[in-house]
Amino acid sequence: MAQTSPATVSAERVTESAAPLAGEPLTADICVIGGGAGGLHVATTAAAFGRKVVLVEKHRMGGEGLNAGSIPSKALLAAARRAHAFQTASDFGIASVDPKTDHRVVQHYVRRVISATAPNSSVERFTGLGVQVVLGAARFLDKRTVLAGDYRVTARRFVIATGSSPSVPDIPGLETVSYFTSDTIFENDRKLPHLVILGAGPTGLELAQAHARLGSRVTVLDAGHALSKEDPEAAAIALKALRAEGIDLREGVTVERIERLAGLVRLHITTENGPATVDGSHLLFATGRTPNVSDLNLEAAGVKYGPDGIVVNRGLRTSNSRIYAIGDVAAGGPRYTHASTWHAEIVLRRALFWLPAKANPALIPRVTFTEPEIAHVGLTEQEARSAGHKINVLRWPFVENDRAEAERETAGHIKVVTTPRGRVLGATIVGAQASELIHLWSLVVSQKLNVKAVAGAVAPYPTRSEASRRAAYRAYASTPANPTLRKLIDFLARLG
Q1: Of 29, 20, 66, nearest in space to 51 by CA
Q2: Which tens digits make up the pLDDT trace of 46-68?
Q3: Fewest CB atoms within 10 Å of the CB: 4, 55, 178, 381?
Q4: 232-259 core/surface letters (b: 16 or more CB in 10 A; e: else)
């Protein structure tokens, strides 16, 4: 079914179709379509509160995050980190070595990690929790009925949580070559001599660093700027580190066509310096994701949708008041596994308890899991200025952190954006363990706390979390009119 713009599909113009006789009738309070993180959270919580829940999944329980996304990518990165530790041990008085990588064993490790976490998302577990699981594709028959597997499901509320799939651009010659996507790359169990990655966002760069550390030559091409959504200062630090590890990262590149050569894939590209070619042994697309809506027959349900997904309001309700959409399939929202579960909580509050919960994307942290990591929550400096805020910017470098120095991981900093009165608008962390450190700032932003709350907290020594406190402490010296006071505050901050 071709996708249609929101303007061309409306509940008023859709005529409800009569439900066919096929399928055994089944009723539910809530029918969840999609067994990924968000859908599973809705199903298990609603069932715990005594609601009759039907969960429909057409592929694999656990969704993309478990089977082809967050879990396998972090397992692959963990393996690559171990290899890199062998290569960079000399600073610690240990002879550096070039480790021998068995890619079949690495792939087995990735699958083992998936298998270890899969029981939490299994059919058996959810059946035991009181959820009726239907394995099969879901297709709306009318505004309150879905045909799924052998059942015709009628429900008071529906939650669409079908996620997204990798997007592959239409490039001339693509049909002549084989390629990986950000989902299928985890099925590979052999060394890739020269991997060419299209897309320099978080996914593309995480996979680039992992494969480079495991012995592949890696070239990354992007039509725009790498890590374009991140704070430019933080992005520059991460990109410098990636290039230092030998990754050939090229920005402002347009791929004009692709051709298959003997044992190679050749990309004909255009750069600011003119046309050129890039030859690689394998090709990987990390060029974004497309919401999974094409086979749901949303017209029959009176649900508006477009290329960016299903149109929802701030309460995640669609144009059909019975139906919600969460996670990657909802238009305009952040596409992270933790965003999907947060969406699930909003829907549960509204659907079960009639609470006025609303989605605010600014509260959702994001992480690029390269080394160094980049983590962010709230507004960046540029976003805050563009929104017209008068701001203070507070920083603390990890080179001034004793734990970072002890572990030889001093690249990066913490950067906090506040109002003149100290309310935290956003925070960006670039450096080792940024993904763990951002949680404090996520709490501060979500609760609209003053930065002095962080400054007044005691951090254990020596830890990286001290850097958050010291960045916050600089709020006391944010007024440059008293240089003596500023020097005193800097001195006290260094003392902890």
Answers
A1: 29
A2: 999 999 999 999 989 998 888 88
A3: 178
A4: eebbebbbebbeebebbbebebebeebe
